[in-house]
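Friendly challenge for the regulars: who can give me the structure tokens for this chain first? No prize, just bragging rights.
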Amino acid sequence: MANHELLKLTSHQVREGGYNKAILAVGSCEAHGHHLASGTDTLVSYMLSCQVADQVDGLLVLPPITVGYSAHYDTFPFTMTLSYDTVTQVIYDYLESTIRNGIEHIFILNGHDGNIAPIEIASRKIKEKYPQARIATLVAWWVTAGDLLPKDTFEVWGGLGHAGEGESSIAYYLYPQWCEPDQAKGYIPDNLPEHVEIKWDFAELTSSAATGDPTKATAEKGEKMAKALVKCMVDTIKQLDGMGWDYRTTAIR
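First reply, four minutes later:
Bragging rights claimed.
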């Protein structure tokens, strides 16, 4: 496969690459149970971004954002976190830099729950200043994967959880060399209300830095997740390309 990672391209290759859109992976660096790499959120989102770029013409893979907002995981070692304002500004600056370099169509693949609000704020601020920009986001791939796959794919809690069955599975598939499955242990939060959202600190939900059941994770499940997610993003970007990223309603009067 041709390389489309900006980190690894010369300026000559960038100029000759015909890039007209970009994908940005946004991750974190924090404990993922006892069994997954601390950079799991960055690794998954960046690796999937590269796979998407292999199948979409003109898609440049931007350098990933490797640290996000993770203060709610701070009880566990070795959590790296930026403030909400800093994460928002970093994402904004990434988007603005991309636009200033002539690419106005940007897909954001987020790997971490703490980045959802900063992505929303930064994207809205960019749209205020650059209304011609087009920004698409997949903000919670761990939820989308469950929606895309058959309901019996996962055994526990729909595969959800931080370093749980789903996230551990995709990690075992993408980078088994940085995982220790024998260290996996998780907890399923059983006292959270159904229809409202609790603003928890992660240590209130688990003592292992993992929720869900990572002991049910397999690389085979992870492969299904990765392929479904990549297909979803490839299809979406190609659909947007086909309409010139003009998603406006056609019959507004």
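The longest helix spans residues 219-242. The two ends are 46 Å apart (CA to CA). Your move, everyone else.
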